[in-house]
Amino acid sequence: MWTLVVNCGSSSLKFALLNSATGETPLSGLAERLGSDLASVRVDRENERVTVPLPRGSYPEAFGVLLAELDALGLRRDVRAVGHRVVHGGDRFNTPVLITPEVVEVIRACIPLAPLHNPANLAGIEAARAAFPDLPQVAVFDTAFHQSMPPVAYRYAVPTDWYTHYGVRRYGFHGISHEYVAGEAARRLGRDPSGLNLVTAHLGNGCSVAAVQGGRSIDTSMGLTPLEGLVMGTRSGDVDPGLPDYLAREAGLSLPGITAALYRESGLLGLSGLTNDMRELEEAARQGNENARLAVDIFVYRLAKAIAGMATVLGTLDALVFTGGIGENSATVRAATLARLGLLGFRLDEAANAQAVRGQGGVITSGGVPALVVNTNEELMIARETAWVVAGGA
Ligand code: ADP
């Protein structure tokens, strides 16, 4: 079944046309700087890449280019559904759903939980509906996979009233990726997912780990917002909750200013003062830059602690999975992380670890508990989930 996968950010629209059974992707692309007069859309056809300017810089205009591309491929009438990545579904959705007016209202109600993302997702849904009025539209939530977490994992030790009135709890993110790589890891290990205890580490610009038991998430490192947990590209991850108050008093910073800095000026960028890009940091560290070295060390140190925590939650560990731009490509980060996790019984295979950088993934340990690299494919996961909903769901 041909499915159009749409992922809208606050000024971007990522799309892909996928065969949900085979993963074949004859068309994909990325519209950027929407909302400005510099907007353009990059279209990746099978053997060719073109960039088309978008003078109005709007979502409908970007969808217009997409329609023209589908016509050129002769595939417009074969598309059966549109699958949307939606960042926050609160505690209302634990599976993907067909988008109805009621679903739109719930996504709207979740805007306070994801003030940048959910409005963009809604704009994308509206524009897709106008462009494809006859197709079913499906919402696939980044939070849904983690809805299986038990209260012991998702509650914060704060006044209960904050939870009941304001939904202050842990939700978790990157669910589409964690679910995809957990399934793929089981397949590669030749094991039935229902009997597996996995820790999955999604390490991109945003980073999170999850404890996946029998194919279900039972804990994850991100919480109410995607700021909690690991050190990330520009996000701090865990800090003392007393930090905002301290900085407000001592540095005269405003609460929004502190929050913005925790999101955009912290993490690898904040520590190194150089860049949020792991590849550049590794290079700078090799050349002797001490701040870059410390940034990478802290990233790895905190990651290893979080993985060990997730292993404790699972009780036993069958495998550790690395994914995301860093997890898939940085042999250095993987080796340094496993070196800190001797307690869990990993034995790194250096040759396999170096090999895994070339894009095929695979097991990077020899003996002991396996660690493996799995390339994530959120678009394929969204296409599969969309096909599942269109076929009638659960
Ligand atoms: P996003 O979360 O935005 O989708 P990615 O999953 O693409 O991001 O991850 C981006 C991160 O992956 C960056 O820190 C980048 O430096 C890192 N990365 C990509 N290739 C390499 C590499 N060869 N070595 C180390 N890090 C890499």
From TrEMBL:
Gene3D superfamilies on file: 3.30.420.40
Cofactor binding description: Mg(2+). Can also accept Mn(2+).
Pfam families, per the entry: Acetate_kinase
Residues where ATP binds: K14, H202, L203, G204, N205, G206, D277, M278, R279, G325, I326, G327, E328, N329
One Gene Ontology term from the biological process aspect of the record: acetate metabolic process
Family to which the UniProt record says this protein belongs: Belongs to the acetokinase family.
The EC number(s) this enzyme carries: 2.7.2.1
GO cellular component: cytosol
Cofactor names: Mg(2+); Mn(2+)
Pathway(s) per entry: Metabolic intermediate biosynthesis; acetyl-CoA biosynthesis; acetyl-CoA from acetate: step 1/2
Name of this chain's protein: Acetate kinase
Main location: cytoplasm
Subunit structure: Homodimer.
Site-annotated residues for Transition state stabilizer: H174, R235
Record-listed Mg(2+) binding positions: N7, E378
Lineage per the UniProt record: Bacteria, Thermotogati, Deinococcota, Deinococci, Deinococcales
Keywords: ATP-binding, Cytoplasm, Kinase, Magnesium, Metal-binding, Nucleotide-binding, Transferase
Biological role: Catalyzes the formation of acetyl phosphate from acetate and ATP. Can also catalyze the reverse reaction.
Reaction(s) the record says it catalyses: acetate + ATP = acetyl phosphate + ADP
Binding residues annotated for substrate, in chain numbering: R85
Molecular function terms from GO: acetate kinase activity; ATP binding; magnesium ion binding
Active site: D142 (proton donor/acceptor)
Subcellular location: Cytoplasm
